[in-house]
Amino acid sequence: MKRVIINVGSSSIKFKIFDNMEELYVGLIENISSFEDAFDNMKNQIIDSGIRDIDGVGHRVVHGGDIFTKPTLITDKVISQIEAISYLAPLHNPLNLIGIRLALKIYPNIPHFAIFDTAFHNTIPNYAYRYAIDNKYYRDDKIRKYGFHGISYSYITREVSKNHNNPNIIAIHLGNGASITAIKSGKSIDTSMGFTPLDGLVMGTRSGGLDPAIITFIIDNYNLTSTQINTILNKESGLKGLCGLSDMREILDSDTLESRLAIDIFCYRIKKYIGAYIAVIGRVDAIVFTGGIGENSKVIRDKILDGLEHITKDIDILVIKANEELEMVLDIITKK
Predict the structure, then answer these.
(1) Which one from 19, 37, 76, 117 is the annotated catalytic residue?
(2) What pLDDT score was predicted for residue 335?
């Protein structure tokens, strides 16, 4: 069974082709100005590869709201439902929908599946996902914690389960976007990202968690619109806001006072979450690092874990390379 797995970003398309679980082809189209041209490029790459008889297509969709909690066969109704909840992820879901519609034109007569980043966190209990604001915002606008990076966390859980049955894990996905998740008995019970991917850890250009009164203070004192403050918090904050750089490799090399402070803040926030999640999980089998920074920077991993030896001495410390595309294929195969 040959399947194409597609991950659409704001200016790139990543795709892989699998035969069952065997990876046959990896494609990347960057700096795109036209999604139609980019998907034609993808189609031509697949034709030129000589791979034939594609049986199915999987699409990463960032936000499934409280509707989609498992891989879902894409129909006109499903597309409409994803569209209806796109206000929850306006930077992501509309792009995912563009990819779905264009791929359906290329492969119109085979099943297409949506795999949702939020789905893994469907097991978070209500006392962990509700915010202490007026109930009407939850009831009418679905404002609650959803969590993200779920496909990555699902893959981590699958891998750790090979050595630990129903594992208890603190999983840390560190890249330009960063989050941490508490996994108990193989199920997500809390995660740092919230209603949007902005909450929680310090990220490349995102602020992470902060006192909400700061937002109204900045808006009032600088006469900003909600669109402008959204841009500041998502694209001009985090590591970039602290030291002017968003790439951790460059920050580690720069060795300025601002860069050292940015690293300290980045690692300190993660360390605090580790302590909190040990408290809510209890016994922990493994602390797992993944994502570009998590996989490649021993300096950052060591700094995060420094001083935690008294509580991590009996915990496996693992680095697992992210493989979201393989997890998506497995999700489709098992239809879990």
Answers:
(1) 117
(2) 63
